[in-house]
Amino acid sequence: MTDPYDPAREGAQMTFDGRMSYGDYLRIDQILTAQHTLTPAHDELLFIIQHQTSELWMKLALHEIGAARDEIRAGRLRPSFKLLSRVARIFEQLNSAWDVLRTMTPSDYTTFRDGLGQSSGFQSWQYRLIEYAVGNRNLAMLRPHAHRPDLTAILEAELARPTLYDEALRWLAGTGLPVPGHVLTRDLRQPWSFDPAVEQLWITVYRDPETHWEAYELAEKLVDFEDYFRRWRFNHLTTVERVIGMKRGTGGTGGASYLRRMLEVELFPELWRLRTAL
Questions:
Q1: Is the pLDDT of residue 48 over 80?
Q2: Is residue 36 part of a domain?
Q3: Which of 36, 116, 150, 188 has its CA 20 to 30 Å from the CA of residue 49?
Q4: pLDDT attached to residue 262
Q5: How many domains is the chain partitioned into structurally?
Q6: Range of 91's domain?
């Protein structure tokens, strides 16, 4: 009979008294003790972990979006492509998480829904920061965070910065493409609205990708990200419809009707509509 496998024989570290371990580095104890259910309902833990892990993925998405924006501003397009691809994959992960939550039935949810009080996902400041960073700058959505001056300051600072799309258009202008002046000087606090001149600009890029290859690839990276982002919104809607039907959300929104309106928001409308013109 052979001896049981012992990783120490190959040099694996097996003692951590006074030394940093895997759990120490990742703060596993803090993470695993951050779930505090308020009811005896079995599915409440699923609900909490689903949303906590989503917030962690959103933290990473913000990290990558910010870095991609910095790279575009500096004219380093190739590193930005990798970062934007990663953001799209992050939203793929967020999409997959809805599949787990959809195993919760309407009956399951009713066993703990009252315990949520007025808390709701639309109050997520990280989600709002993502929306602001990529262009959907709805100033009304500052209000749910007015009780937290620290969060309001973070969101206001984002509203003072050019969005990801603004930086892309500023880079295009720097390459000599005719970006309209009013686009480059627009009020950054306002949401982006469709601009026919910008659509025509992107049409120029798509009709001659060999000449404008970096702009062409940048456009496709933006579309790829928005594609996954739209799917995330759609999966959110279908999950809500499956679990609560047309009831109002815990935070007072219309629930499914509110989420359906969000499906109409376009982050980079010119990049989608140009396909009809090609």
A1: yes
A2: no
A3: 150
A4: 74
A5: 1
A6: 42-122+163-246+253-277
Instruction: Give the mean pLDDT of the chain.
Output: 92
For residue 86, pLDDT over 80 is answered with: yes
> To the nearest whole percent, how much of the chain has pLDDT over 90?
76
Q: What is the CATH number of the domain that holds 98?
A: 1.20.58.480
In a domain, 10, yes or no: no
Examine residue 104 and state whether it is found in any structural domain, yes or no: yes
Question: Is 6 or 155 the better-scoring residue by pLDDT?
Answer: 155
Instruction: Please state the φ and ψ torsions of residue 33, each to the nearest 5 degrees.
Output: -105, 15
Average pLDDT for 2-10:
82
